[in-house]
Design goal:
CATH topology: Rossmann fold
Bound molecules: 2-amino-2-deoxy-6-O-phosphono-alpha-D-glucopyranose
Number of domains: 1
Radius of gyration: 17 Å
Distance between the termini: 15 Å
Structural class: alpha/beta
Low-confidence stretches: none
Helix content: 25-40%
Number of strands: 10
Strand order of the largest sheet: 1-10-9-6-2-3-5
Shape: globular
CATH architecture: 3-Layer(aba) Sandwich
Largest sheet: 7 strands, parallel
Order of helices and strands: EHEHEEHEHEEHEHEHEH
Mean pLDDT: 97
Length: 260
């Protein structure tokens, strides 16, 4: 795992945006896995800025989002569809047919999830999967105890996750109990995993995911098994890491050709 600690979330998001820009410039048909959440907002602002100011071209980009609430229509204000269109897709030149977000209204959920997996395969797999982190260590909506080899499926949200997301629904009572999410096995097949986490409230989950044992009780710890996992943090999210000095030392002494 490569742990990169930046002074603040702006600098961290800029680094992540540069990684995605590099992929888009270098690959004729880039496939990007995307995540929702406050963590990603600055990253998406930077991508929009790169499109507007430098003409970064998204017309060849295909995207697959990690997850969506079950029972929400795409135009529900708290749906991840809305989040993605409002914060990114409506402001870049992506082709709507290249956007994939799980359908919260799918009638046969398992058949739908199997098809989603198939579509990722047909696209040639995901080049870079962007990830955020739940305060309980979840990635996507893979809550603690999710199988480390799980595939896209329906999951029941924990009480903590429902509470964390209550603000978007005008109260906990309105938060759905279920979501469709790519599995941990699905996520680990991306060629690069790029996890962002900011703020003190993510510090203990980051410490467990990076320096604790690989365990289904901390789904993000599965990234320890990935050959190309990049974790970009601000100082607060990194504050409980025991080997912080070492990660910074490694980053400062990276060979020139390896630098982002
Ligand atoms: C939700 C999403 C996750 C995201 C997490 C963190 O649970 N399913 O993909 O990583 O929220 O959200 P935030 O970035 O707002 O802290």
């Amino acid at each position: 795992m490569e742990i990169i600690v930046q002074q603040d979330s702006q600098k961290a998001s800029w680094l992540a945006a540069r990684l995605l820009r590099k992929l888009i410039l270098e690959k004729p048909n880039p496939v990007i896995g995307l995540a929702t959440g406050n963590t990603q907002l600055q990253l998406y602002k930077y991508l929009v800025q790169m499109h507007r100011e430098e003409g970064l071209d998204f017309s060849r980009v295909m995207t697959f989002n990690l997850d969506e609430y079950v029972g929400l229509s795409p135009d529900h204000p708290a749906s991840f569809h809305r989040f993605m269109w409002d914060n990114l897709f409506s402001q870049i030149n992506i082709k709507p047919e290249n956007v994939h977000i799980p359908d919260g209204l799918a009638s046969n959920i398992q058949a739908y999830c199997d098809r989603y997996e198939q579509e990722i395969k047909e696209a040639g797999g995901i080049d870079i999967q962007v990830l955020g982190l739940g305060t309980n260590g979840h990635i996507g909506f893979n809550e603690p105890s999710s199988s480390l080899s799980s595939r896209t499926r329906i999951k029941t949200l924990t009480a903590q996750t429902r509470k964390n997301n209550a603000i978007f629904f005008g109260g906990e009572d309105h938060v759905p109990y279920h979501a469709i999410t790519m599995g941990i096995g699905t996520i680990l097949e991306a060629r690069t995993c790029l996890l962002l986490a900011f703020g003190q409230k993510k510090a203990s989950a980051i410490a467990l995911a990076v320096e604790g044992p690989v365990t289904a009780m901390v789904p993000a710890s599965a990234l320890q098994l990935h050959p190309q996992a990049i974790i970009i943090l601000d100082r607060e999210a990194a504050s409980e890491l025991k080997h912080l000095d070492y990660y910074q030392w490694v980053y400062e002494h990276k060979p020139e050709w390896q630098k982002i």
